[in-house]
Amino acid sequence: MDNDHKSTMKSISKLISQSSQSFLSAFLDDSKDKKNKSEERESLLKKLQLASAQKSLVVLQLKEVPTSQKFETVSGWIVSKSITDSIMLRLQGDSQQIRMIAVEHIKKVSTLSKSDERQIK
Length: 121
Hints:
This protein has one helix at residues 2-54, and strands at residues 57-62, 72-78, 86-91, 98-102, 106-112. By secondary structure, it is an alpha+beta fold. The longest helix has 53 residues, at 2-54. The model has no long low-confidence stretch (mean pLDDT 78).
């Protein structure tokens, strides 16, 4: 009975040790993910701010909408001067229509400045 007690204690201490290690590992990985997301957001905001200052045509690929599995692409010119959590976009197809887009929904940004000789058709 004494050996059973020792093996039980050994297995419990091993379980606690593994749980602590996995908890610490998950915590550190989560910190890396948050840092990467923060860096991606800053990079995205810089691109949008530059496009706004240059009055460039912007093509945005938006992340998946919860109701569908597809992504959405919109193009136009950024109307807002300061960009924080959302942007105002004057749509290319209808210059009278303005759409508000949350920065967190933007997956990819492409720009075309006025000085660029290429044209988007």
